[in-house]
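no rush on this but wanted to send it before i forget. theres a chain ive been looking at and ive put its sequence and its fold in token form underneath. i want to understand how the tokens follow from the sequence so walk me through it. thanks a lot i owe you, the record is right below:
>
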Amino acid sequence: MNRTTLSLIAGTTALAAVTGFAFLAQPDAPAPDTAAKAAAQLPVERTSLLCPAPSTSDLAETAYTSFTPVTKGTGSGGQAELSAATEESTDAPADGKDKGKGGDGKPGKDASAKPVLTPKEPGKPVTGDSSGGDAPALVGTADGRFAPGWTVQETTEVAAGTGRGLQGVNCTAPDTDFWFPGASTDADRTDYVHLTNPDDSAAVVDIELYGKDGALKSAVGEGITVQPHSSEPVLLSTLADERQSDLTVHVNVRSGRVGAAVQALDDKLGGDWLAASTDPSGSLVLPGIPKDATSVRLVAFTPDDADADLKVRLASPSGPITPAGHETVHVKGGMTTAVDLGDVTRGEAGSLVLTPTDRSVPVVAALRVVRGKGDKQETAFIPATRPVGTRATSADNSGKGSTLSLTAPVAAATVKVTASAGSEGGTPVSKTYTIKAGTTQDIEPPVPGGLKGTYALTVEPVSGGPVYGARTLAASEGGVPAFTVQTLPDDRGTVAVPEADEDLSVLQK
């Protein structure tokens, strides 16, 4: 890979503790009788991101790209840094508890002398790479002008073996609750849930598995300890005896907080990262199904006691389409439901839109998407996602192989797409697009002038209804149509802060 090699840390890097994954310093509380004005949107002052260990394959080649869009009102200070987490040992008990401790009770694998990635300025990506199966998980924080909209992409190419192909994931903010419909413990699958703890104290996590008949009985998924500043992969097949083709994984953090992502590796169909679905909701959008998808499988789950009945619509370039034979899907409460939609896009761009037929019941969902045929197939996942909102960013784009997919399921919308400067040179460029109501448009994204290296794409709605988006990276490897899809939820780079009606600082005591 033509990437700048990541520098090495001389000793173990410890990040400063962060009290939230995105926060803004709050003003002094106003007097009780002070009326609040409309809330102002101000940039966040600090955020944190966690990247899972990319692969255990000796053939893996991993690229990291860090990018922060330029945001008004942030000042000139701040920094962002990604450092190696302490990886847990794989020689741990099968029950998944307290993994990685040696005889002295300390984490097993030392991650000193591991890479650190430090952006130099907003608006310009910084890249690094790593080879082989020893690349660690990364733990990072950004503050000041680097915090709003900070995005890090981890992209791995695996030439052969289980999970071969292209695997990509957006590094995530720490949280306490995650849902992953679309996981599996089938014989051909090797699925891990990666847990990364950014804080100074241990986190305690429960992992629950739900199959076609409900919860899988397991005590070993309870009370998993993730040590401070460390990352731990948990093999899902060790958490339950029963094999299931379609599972929903619920990661619930009892104490502390973690970043979580599922790595789904298939012996025959390649593999990719499965990011968490958006929070359970009555209506869901799953954007960016590649137009040449040969197989699309919907996996849905409701944590509610009541069943959910959902209308299934495909937002195509010409408008909403009802897939023949799949007009609705019935999801039983507490049970995972899977539906094969086949080649539902039929050669056109598409996004799946799920809405309640009657009573709204909260649901999570994801798509398993396959490209190619025979022994030349590759898999990626598309979870239900939040709308772009104010702004969303996709890092690690090159001059070719990137497709931006945008859908406006409710009303027509106009969006501005900005291609950043390249990591090694290039001039930013912006272009405006109109997405018709109920449609999905695949866009060949703008490319910076004089591009050198990789660049980021930032999507900002200008007018109209809500917009959902996804970016697909594609590459051909030995005849295999390798690809990976990342959704584009709002970057939560700003927070609403109420303004007081009057300046109370001048009041006399």
Observations:
- Residues 1-36, 89-115, 502-509 have pLDDT under 50 and may be disordered.
